[in-house]
Specification:
342 residues; alpha+beta; QueA-like; Thrombin, subunit H; 2 domains; nine-stranded mixed β-sheet; six-stranded antiparallel beta barrel; 18 strands; globular
């Protein structure tokens, strides 16, 4: 039966719960790697530390150098009720979008530790809230919030891990090339690189970094029946001079992760802009224009991320590759194994 690539239900699959990775493999480059070569139609099962042996000689590599912040905070309202707050992204200097677990209304004050607090400004239909942070009575700019949440906050592990963050996650849930603070979810394909492998690949391939601060919307399932009716979340991005130069060259590009892919592909459609808000939805009806190869993890059913994979290989092939991964007991999601599409 042929699947309709525009129907959300086409992207469903059943994943045994024990294949959801709750911790990474150690060392991180010993994750498994499924390699799919579109030209020959072959699937190869390997390991991430063998990645270089599969890379086309002349390909350039784009990394996302965003850094995950400790975006999850636990506080209390003046009524004594407990609140969990997940920063989504800054909207303006003093205005931050967040998700709050616990009943709040405009002007609700949420208290954290050492004089740090937040005031709810506005509630939105998508479940998010706009807030302002304070230290004592002083309003804080977002860059002033970062060192405070680094002390008080928690690594925002995805909800499907069903566990609290631990000290080790501060290292595990961060790429070795993370640089610019702002993500509330890791660009997960990046998590497999060791420092040594990263340096080795950079030595042998043209490379550059972009920044896309991954928002909480990356985990939001597509609820609409037709995927193009889904309101795609937006995230801050920046194209570095090196990335712009590589982008403009004739070098075939491998993007490390869906986030680097979205950034490059947004830039392909808006070449005049080097930073701003990107909200590109890649799917089989809107395939990549500049990215030739994709390195990625295995994603949630009916998510925009699995639809992005399908923009490279089609929905039937995507599900075929996922079924192969399930059959071979690959580990799924953020701390799971990787797939290279050539």
């Amino acid at each position: 039966m042929q699947l309709d690539p525009l129907k959300t239900s086409s992207y469903n699959f059943t994943l045994p719960e024990e294949l959801i990775a709750t911790h990474p493999v150690e060392p991180r480059d010993h994750a498994r790697l499924l390699v799919y070569d579109r030209a020959s139609g072959t699937i190869t099962h390997s390991r991430f530390d063998k990645l270089e042996s599969f890379l086309p000689e002349n390909c350039g590599i784009i990394f996302n150098d965003t850094k995950v912040i400790k975006a999850r905070l636990y506080g209390t309202k003046s009524s004594g009720g407990k609140v969990e707050l997940l920063i989504n992204r800054p909207k303006e200097a003093y205005r931050v979008n967040a998700y709050i677990r616990g009943k709040v209304k405009p002007d609700t004050i949420i208290k954290f530790e050492e004089g740090f607090s937040a005031r709810v400004l506005e509630l939105f239909d998508d479940g998010s809230r706009d807030i302002t942070f304070y230290l004592d009575d002083r309003t804080l700019r977002f860059e002033e919030v970062l060192p405070i949440i680094d002390k008080q906050g928690h690594i925002p592990l995805p909800p499907y891990m069903h566990r609290d963050d631990a000290k080790q996650d501060e290292e595990d849930y961060q790429s070795v090339f993370a640089k610019h603070e702002g993500a509330v979810a890791a660009p997960t394909a990046s998590l497999h690189f060791t420092d040594e492998q990263f340096k080795r690949i950079c030595k042998n391939h043209p490379h550059a970094s972009v920044t896309l601060h991954v928002g909480a919307g990356t985990f939001k399932p597509v609820d609409s029946e037709i995927i193009t009716d889904h309101p795609m979340h937006s995230e801050y991005y920046h194209i570095s001079d090196e990335a712009e130069s590589l982008f403009k060259s004739n070098t075939p590009l491998l993007c490390v992760g869906t986030t680097a892919t979205r950034t490059i592909e947004y830039h392909a459609r808006h070449p005049e802009k080097l930073d701003g808000e990107a909200n590109l939805f890649l799917h089989p009806g809107n395939p990549p224009m500049r990215t030739d190869y994709l390195l990625t993890n295995f994603h949630l059913p009916q998510s925009t991320l699995i639809m992005l994979v399908a923009s490279f290989v089609g929905v039937e092939k995507t599900l075929e590759l996922y079924q192969e991964a399930i059959k071979k007991r690959y580990r799924f999601y953020s701390y799971g194994d990787a797939m290279l599409i050539l």
